[in-house]
Design goal:
- The chain has 268 residues and is mainly α.
- The chain folds into 2 domains: 1-35, no CATH class; 36-265, Orthogonal Bundle (MetI-like fold), CATH 1.10.3720.10.
- Helix content is 74%, strand content 0%.
- It is globular and about 70 Å long.
- The two termini are 32 Å apart.
Length: 268
């Protein structure tokens, strides 16, 4: 617990300390020269809140779409009597090892008219193959007798999925929601690549640009106290601001996390 908590407490202390103490290595777990200058610089910028709102929207929309597509695909693949099942599994697994490359992907997204839109972030990463295979293994572990009984009672395939399978899959779905939400929340390169308007950036790109600007100001010998302070502890502040929402959400789904992974990883 100490080994896990110390780095995070150190980051908090650095984000609240003055630039001189950080550079001299005097900050451990207690802030030195307590100040909130960097927080003030970041949070007083209206663009920060616009980008933060974008991140929330991108994460929620992308997570919902990913969960729906991954669940449907995994449920289909869990049926051993499905014709062409091997080909569908092969197509998914193939993408884990091979991709078109950065330039072809950029050309594809641009030619589809998805640049500078939320769909450039959501659609290319809608299905994570690892998550797909975990959910597939979980669905395969469910008793087939339940679905057979439901079919005898007159439920269609969609009815069985909605009324039988999904209520039994809360643990694995909660786990996948956590995986996808964290992935989309922390993602910055996709938006950096496909968006060129600052009002569309997620907060991770905003903070990345802030770090780059502060580093440049420091290396060029800027005499601005505000920039110097920002350059000294901007990384710590950005980590805190980025991870805080995930820390708030995680306790509510933590109880599903371990059981979801174990159920999806081992077919019993």
């Amino acid at each position: 617990m100490i080994a896990t908590l110390y780095p995070f407490v150190n980051i908090i202390a650095r984000s609240l300390s003055e630039e001189g103490y950080i550079r001299s290595g005097q900050v451990n777990i207690i802030p030195r020269g307590f100040n909130l200058d960097t927080y003030r610089v970041v949070m007083s910028d209206s663009m920060f809140w616009i980008n933060y709102r974008n991140t929330i929207v991108y994460t929620v929309v992308a997570t919902i779409i990913s969960i729906v597509l991954t669940t449907c695909y995994a449920y289909v693949l869990s049926k051993n009597d499905l014709k062409g099942r091997g080909a569908l599994v092969g197509v998914a697994v193939f993408t884990m090892f091979f991709s078109g490359g950065l330039i072809p992907n950029y050309i594809l997204i641009t030619s589809l008219g998805l640049k500078n839109s939320i769909w450039a972030i959501v659609l290319p990463n809608a299905i994570n193959v690892f998550n797909l295979l975990v959910m597939k293994a979980f669905f395969e572990s469910l008793p087939t007798e339940l679905e057979e009984a439901a079919a005898v009672d007159g439920l269609s395939t969609y009815g069985i999925l909605w009324r039988i399978v999904l209520p039994l899959s809360k643990a694995i779905i909660a786990t996948m929601v956590l995986f996808y939400a964290v992935s989309f929340w922390n993602s910055w390169f996709t938006a950096f690549l496909y968006m060129d308007r600052s009002e569309l950036f997620p907060v991770t790109v905003y903070l990345r640009n802030l770090i780059a600007g502060a580093t440049t100001a420091t290396s060029s010998g800027s005499s601005s106290d505000s920039l110097a302070q920002t350059a000294a502890n901007i990384q710590s502040v950005t980590i805190i601001l980025t991870v805080l929402p995930i820390m708030v959400v995680y306790p509510f789904i933590q109880r599903y996390f371990v059981s979801g992974i174990m159920l999806g990883a081992v077919k019993g």
